[in-house]
Every structure is written in structure tokens, then in C-alpha cells.
Fold this sequence. Notes:
By secondary structure, this protein is an all-beta fold. It contains no helices and 22 strands. It is elongated and about 70 Å long.
Amino acid sequence: MTNLTQLPVSRSSRPLRRIFSGLILLALAVTFQASANAQTDQTIYDDTLGSGWGNWSWASINFGSTAYVHTGTNSIAVSATAWSALAIQKNAFDTSGYGKLNFWINGGATGEQKVRVFGTLSNSAVGSGVDVGPLAPNTWLLVSIPLASLAVDGKTTFTGFWIQEFTGTDQSLNPFYVDDVVLTGSVPVIPPPPLNGGMALYEDAYVNGWNNWSWATVNTANTTPVNSGSSSIAVTSNAYEAVRFNHSALDSSNYTNLTFWINGGSAGGQVLSLNALLSGVAQPGFTVGP
């Protein structure tokens, strides 16, 4: 899970006056991007309905369609008349620790369907729903909806969701397809430690003159997992590649520690070396991990 690492800039109790120009986080293992979850992801549909989930639909549904399949062997074909819906329900449970409803949807041969997704509490739709579409023909689209957007986050009476035809037109001859439906676990949000007069390097984006000089593949606007704010830096590295923070030379004498949060993703096990730079030259490293 998430760990707080505080690394001293100086071993002395009196800060050393150095010209400090950057940091290199050198990855000796690959793939530093998978999400970590507070709850185990719950499969709702994966070729068949997951345990405890049932069909409450009032559209025409085929849970074993092979016409369009995202993964596996089957998908859900939905032939919807006006305002009818695919509805998948379960006995009420607590959504605490869950973050999003994820599914893949395909418009089939013609596409252009418009649907609205609702979450349900005690088997009744709540909130205003989330619009999806018009759907592209012959194309799989990943839909990832925060439970908060469905007004079902942190509720003890969550029972499922609807995907409803929402144009008021008969689409029964123009089915759409749904596959790989998952309720994903959320990552606990822990407030960052106070800076106490320090200088931030990254707060959803590089700040205070710091820049991305990485030679690993990085996504500086990654949304899952996130410790605080809305983004984190996802790092996918080959051997000896690095995420690098660079700044024009600055005086480090007023700073005593480097603090950051790091997450090994679902697999973990990465071993990293943290190196500071003086006038662009890497100094002896500090091992982080596994």
C-alpha cells in the first residue's frame, strides 16, 4: 500500500550549504503503475454474472451474446425499447471502500445509441445519472464512473445499477453490448504531510520551477491511485530508467528532508535508487523498496 518516505538531505544536524540541482529516482524494476485498492475489485459480469448479482432488466437481454465480445467468450447484448434498461442488482451492501463502476460498451453495427447510467439504493434509481453516448459503431469504449457521480458512494443500501435507453426511441433493432463490468476498490486518501515552510515539487503538477526530465515513461496526470489531490505520477520503467525532477541550481541549506509518497501498485516489489544531483552530477544513492 502507500508508504511515506522521508529522506534526509544532510546527515548533519546543521544543513550543508550545497548547490542542489535535481533528483533522480532510478527504477531497477519495471511497471510502476498498477492501482492498489482498499476493497478487492468486485466482478459484476465477466462472461456470466458474478456471484449474487441478478438480472432485473426490462429491456431484452442476452447475457451470452457472442456477436461483440470485449474479453472472454460472451458479452451482454441489450435490445432496448424506449426508456427500457439493462438492470443488474444484488442484495444491499455497503459501498465504503469502493470507488468506481467500470464497464466496456459497444454500439454494435450501427451505434449512435444514447444511454444514461443510474446507481440504485434499495433497488431504486437515485441521482440524475451519467450520460454515455452516442455510442460509436463497432467500437469498445471504457466507461469509468465514480460512485460519487452516481450518488451511491459510502452508502449501505447499494443494490446495483441501470444502463437505460434515454432518448425515448425504440432501439430494439439496434442492440448495444456491455462487457467486463467491475466495481473497483478505491485507494484511501491520506492528507499530505505539512510542508512546514518547505517547497513543493509536485502537487497534481510540477510546481515552483520543477520540471520533468525523466527518461522512463511517466504520466504526470495519473488518476489511479492517488494519495491526495487529483493526480499522481505513474512511472513505467525499463531497466535503469528513471523519473527525474529537475530545477535550476538552488541553495539547499534551508531544507533538511525530502518527503514523498510512493505506491508499488498491485504487484509491488520494485527496488529503486534515489539520487540527488549537485551541478547536474548524481550523488551516492539511497535505496527505496522493495
